[in-house]
Amino acid sequence: xxxxxxxxxxxxxxxxxxxxxxxxxxxxxxxxxxxxxxxxxxxxxxxxxxxxxxxxxxxxxxxxxxxxxxxxxxxxxxxxxxxxxxxxxxxxxxxxxxxxxxxxxxxxxxxxxxxxxxxxxxxxxxxxxxxxxxxxxxxxxxxxxxxxxxxxxxxxxxxxxxxxxxxxxxxxxxxxxxxxxxxxxxxxxxxxxxxxxxxxxxxxxxxxxxxxxxxxxxxxxxxxxxxxxxxxxxxxxxxxxxxxxxxxxxxxxxxxxxxxxxxxxxxxxxxxxxxxxxxxxxxxxxxxxxxxxxxxxxxxxxxx
Length: 304
Hints:
By secondary structure, the chain is α+β, with helices and mostly antiparallel strands. The protein has helices at about 25-40, 50-60, 75-85, 100-105, 110-115, 145-155, 165-175, 230-240; strands at about 10-15, 45-50, 65-70, 90-95, 120-130, 135, 140-145, 180-185, 190-200, 220-230, 255-260, 260-265, 270-275, 275-280, 285-295. The longest helix has 15 residues, at about 25-40. The radius of gyration is 19 Å and the shape is globular.
């Protein structure tokens, strides 16, 4: 589905705000963002949400075809998208978190006001939604070393912005012990000792890591990237290359693509999706093709 945004002019909009994203970044940006939406001609309802579940419920209750602007982090955006999937509302992602990886990868402005002011250049597209053990997500579901880094990053007391994930990675390096993974992609199973498994839809996480750089959010498939046996220096090199998306050529990096991914490990590991803890492995990750309407640039690098 492709359409302009003129149909939104003068209509109603719901602005969902996560008060905890980015250590209060969403709340700080709220007044300017609300003003920009009103200046764009919207009759605006503002909701500072109580939880991710609250965001899902409010997006679920939105009118079909109405605008739901989502000011928060990646996990908050995924929660709102889950509700919009059911209501048929159109989601406008606004960067209100720390990493804002989905907004970055979709090609939207990191300044929410500029994103709103660019509405006339955006188009409505139907994007896929991932399901990680039934939990909807947009960006990346992951397990392994990067999950441990995510835990350390989320618990960091310092306000480091996107660099909080670098801090988490350094901490995780010191604690990681290699495990064996078993990964099945559409029934094709492999087992290997390694460091991580990432399942990408939009395909970016960790403050700019393009871990599944070929992932497209509207192709009806998930990209699976695994990092096998490597030294700590080798892992660090892989992460550095992933900022450019150039790590897929490494011998210890495997890539596949499918619609149903199953992951298990020899030790207890947590599964994350859009930076939020979902479950402990084993896990089943699936894709819902064309599940949610989004406003995105027509030339978004995350689209097929």
